[in-house]
Amino acid sequence: MIRAILNRAVLIPSPTHYVEAMNMFFQKQGKAQLHYGSSDFTILEGGSYVTCAVTGEKIPLEELRYWNDERQEAYKDAGAALKGFQRAGVA
Length: 91
Prior knowledge:
This is DUF2093 domain-containing protein. It holds the Pfam family DUF2093. It is built from two helices and eight strands. It is of the alpha+beta class. Mean pLDDT is 82; it is low at 1-7.
């Protein structure tokens, strides 16, 4: 869709464009590179999983719920997160 604003044409991508780009990004197989924030994460390198810092197990991105933003570590579940915090002397 093209919309004219102040005599300039601005290309506005359709929502379908975003969906296609996201699908291509998430369909990449292999380990993803993430930057963990305090309440969310940013995908730096596409992939389908990250590795748990405690157990070494693969965590599919859609199941990732636990991480530590200070140590940039992902955890498989609440138990692994607790062990990670205990190992760091936080809990």
